Amino acid sequence: MNMIRSSIIMLLVLTIFTGIAYPLMVTGLANIFFPWQAHGSLLMQDERTVGSALIGQNVGDVRYFHGRPSATVDSPYNALASGGSNLAVSNPLLQQTMIERNEQLRAANPDADNATPVDLLTASASGLDPNISIDAALYQAPRIAKSRQIPLDAVKSLIETHTEQALLPFLGESVINVLKLNLALDEYQQQINSQTH
């Protein structure tokens, strides 16, 4: 009888501590010290939420930078169905998919003067990657400049400004958050338009 009573008391104590007190404490501390991150790293434009800095978006408009392909179920960048394609490099379906993506990218970016960056051909493991490489952004820059009728140097300058440097060279590579870059692109376009009117 004592064993059952001790077990029930221990279950209640651990449930209260690990199931209620600890999560509340961590949530409270996160809200105090990291409020932006604790609320989803949401990005705003014109006082409305346009997305999260942590989750990529499916962008098809030629005037915007495009992110990596997404292999999430139902729709691209579906945060409720995070996951990769899980196809091996030797899988013919993956090879065919990459050939098709390369053809589509080449058709959409005819003025690109370098090889298609691999991150524009392959989906990330989560299917939600919000970042692209510097090469992937520069690959798309001529299309952006042409479609928006702005100088290519201005687009390259925005890319440089919004590059998030790797903490250390051996701890990853420098990347660009696609949504932040697209928001900066809109802001730059608005400034240009206001100066010409």
UniProtKB/TrEMBL annotation:
UniProt xrefs under Pfam families: KdpC
InterPro entries: KdpC (IPR003820)
Keywords: ATP-binding, Cell membrane, Ion transport, Membrane, Nucleotide-binding, Potassium, Potassium transport, Transmembrane, Transmembrane helix, Transport
GO molecular-function term, one example from the UniProt record: ATP binding
Membrane topology annotation: Single-pass membrane protein
GO CC list: plasma membrane
Transmembrane segments: none
Compartments, record wording: Cell membrane
Family: Belongs to the KdpC family.
Quaternary context: The system is composed of three essential subunits: KdpA, KdpB and KdpC.
HAMAP family to which the protein is assigned, alphabetical: KdpC
UniProt xrefs under PANTHER family: POTASSIUM-TRANSPORTING ATPASE C CHAIN, POTASSIUM-TRANSPORTING ATPASE KDPC SUBUNIT
Protein's job: Part of the high-affinity ATP-driven potassium transport (or Kdp) system, which catalyzes the hydrolysis of ATP coupled with the electrogenic transport of potassium into the cytoplasm. This subunit acts as a catalytic chaperone that increases the ATP-binding affinity of the ATP-hydrolyzing subunit KdpB by the formation of a transient KdpB/KdpC/ATP ternary complex.
Stated name of the protein: Potassium-transporting ATPase KdpC subunit
Species: Providencia rettgeri
